[in-house]
Design goal:
binds adenosine-5'-diphosphate; Rossmann fold; binds magnesium ion; alpha/beta; about 350 residues; 16 helices; 8-stranded mixed β-sheet; 8 strands; elongated
């Protein structure tokens, strides 16, 4: 089995299986082979920060790091910083100051996933990297999001273009950038109008103005969002993206991985990899207990792991195995897992 390097390499899976560690090890191996690597994590657990020795103030910035003697770049996603970069790059300063956008771009504010795609796109198009390795948050959330992208696309459809050009004319004439209920009333459904009317009564209209401004600003920034969305097509393409679904040999994790793939089937391409982490077989095989009971334990554990691998191989086209590293040190984990990536890689 040899693994071809792609422009994008995405790690997903449930919590605690080793996504962050394996993504980092993969990034290190690629960088060691001469690739220019950017490692991005959108995992709010921030384990990468500790692994890479980054400080709080470096979150959200692209930082050159050196891990186990290898140089690469790393970025711990901060949605606020991405918004700031977008507003600079696309010259939409209001994007960084609108209060509604600020709320949406808080961690868990609902815009994290789209912003991470926009960020990956912005970073890749600088031309500074050969490979972007992406460590995603646990579970199917990121995948759900990819599936739901068409909803965001429809936000920018023709109807909105007409509404916004109308709003744009009115804004120019009125010499100000926000509107009260009067204008928006014409375009929106009764339910939403009632809600906005209620909010206006409660907030004295400021919320409505912020809201309308937010909609306008997001629309003005549509090029950035659409580019982020266009990345979805590249992530579906075999020639541009490697998908790694990570799981571990622990109880119940295989079922989670199988469910995750069933979920992901619509949009990740068929050449994806199942990464089975924390395998014990090679250590168990080297273990020669003389006590009969322990021999039985060894056989039982080996049997379970073999069953699991059989189950996974029946479902996944390729299964990459990574050993459990017998150490408490995360750096040791990284070293061993980087070595293991080397054995799979075709880049040297
Ligand atoms: N192959 C391995 N052997 C031993 N420990 C591992 C291995 N892979 C990961 N770990 C450890 O397991 C823990 C969870 O790993 P992490 O990469 O943070 O998982 P995730 O990102 O999927 O939540 C960490 O302490 C990590 O060092
Ligand atoms: Mg993680």
């Amino acid at each position: 089995m040899t693994l071809t390097t792609k422009s994008f390499e995405i790690f997903c899976g449930t919590g605690g299986v080793g996504k962050t560690t394996l993504a980092t090890a993969r990034g290190i191996d690629l960088a060691a082979s001469g690739k220019r690597v950017l490692l991005i994590t959108i995992d709010p657990a921030r384990r990468l920060k500790d692994l890479l020795g980054l400080s709080e103030s470096q979150i959200g910035e692209v930082i050159p790091v050196e891990v186990i003697g290898v140089k690469l770049h790393a970025l711990l996603m901060s949605p606020e910083k991405t918004i700031l970069r977008m507003s600079q790059k696309y010259q939409t300063p209001d994007l960084a100051t609108n209060r509604i956008v600020q709320i949406l771009s808080k961690p868990y504010g609902g815009m994290n996933e789209i912003l991470s795609l926009v960020e990956v796109q912005m970073q890749f198009e600088t031309g500074a990297y050969d490979v972007v390795v992406l460590d995603t948050p646990p579970g199917a959330h990121f995948l759900d999001f990819l599936e739901g992208l068409s909803k965001i696309r429809s936000f920018f459809d023709q109807n909105f273009i007409e509404i916004f050009s109308y709003l744009g004319q009115k804004t120019a004439r009125a010499g100000k950038r926000v509107f009260g209920l009067g204008i928006i009333n014409r375009f929106i459904s009764t339910g939403v109008r009632k809600l906005l009317g209620y909010l206006e009564a409660v907030t004295g209209g400021q919320f409505i103005d912020d809201f309308i401004q937010a909609v306008q600003i997001i629309y003005q920034s549509r090029d950035a969002f659409m580019k982020g969305l266009s990345l979805q097509e590249r992530l579906k393409s075999r020639s541009e993206c490697n998908w790694f679904l990570v799981t571990s040999v622990e109880q119940g994790k295989a079922t989670e991985a199988i469910n995750l793939r069933a979920h992901a089937g619509h949009f990740i391409h068929q050449d994806h990899y199942l990464v089975l982490n924390k395998c014990l077989a090679s250590d168990l095989e080297a273990w020669a207990p003389t006590v009969p009971n322990l021999l039985a334990v060894k056989e039982s554990l080996l049997g379970k792991e073999q069953d699991l691998k059989g189950q996974l191989r029946a479902v996944f086209p390729v299964v990459l195995e990574f050993p459990e590293v017998i150490s408490l040190s995360p750096i040791e984990h990284l070293k061993h897992l980087t070595e293991k990536w080397k054995t799979y890689a075709s880049h040297r």
